[in-house]
Amino acid sequence: MNKDIKHLIEDIESEVQYTSAYIGKSKLDKRVMQTMARVPREEFVPKTMQYAAYDNGPLPIGHGQTISQPYIVALMSDLLSLKPEDRVLEIGTGSGYQTAILAELCEKVFSIERIAELSRQAEERFSKLNYKNIETRVGNGYQGWQEHAPYDGIIVTAAATHIPQPLIDQLKPGGNLVIPVAMSHFSQSLMRVKKDLDGEIETQDILNVVFVPLVNDEQDKSNSVH
Predict the structure, then answer these.
(1) What are 154's strand-pairing partners?
(2) Nearest by Cα to 128 from 96, 162, 165
(3) Active site amino acids
(4) Tens of pLDDT along 87-105?
(5) Which CATH number belongs to the domain containing residue 10 in this structure?
(6) Whole domain around residue 102: which residue ranges?
């Protein structure tokens, strides 16, 4: 492990300790942390920002979007509680960094991005890094990806105005949905939504966060879970 990655892992571990009262644990899953140390974040940031690739903070990637803070990437991955055989839906491919983390943790990742250029760039990165278990498409994340449902886990990497009902419907019983939700114009909460084996839903507020907004092209805000 080079010194930059080692420093990043230490920063993530320190932030986990700092937020332990909110997230309910003092350590993240070992598989998640090993993956965070393995995936080369510098491959997912613009060349002009590569000097900051292993800083524990978000970075701009163009089109008004960001690559998330590594701590948040690790936390959201941990909250999914993935098994190697799981299939995951990601809403918001962005740079592809979170996608790559998920691809190392589970069997298959289906990832939706509404900005075609970001999706294309991410696909090029996946090909370069030899990820063969990622399938991407350009589309409206609020509607999910019904074709491949149900999913063992669903992760949303932009702040929604509500928890979209299609995502609830596409989550497998026993699965977790991790999503930032805008509680007001000034506040967002990272939430974990659990669907039990009977299909009942339980929501849990985890942590205050800051994400770019999730855009709903169809503006269909009916049938939502709050």
Answers:
(1) 89, 177
(2) 96
(3) 68
(4) 999 999 999 999 999 999 9
(5) 3.40.50.150
(6) 3-209
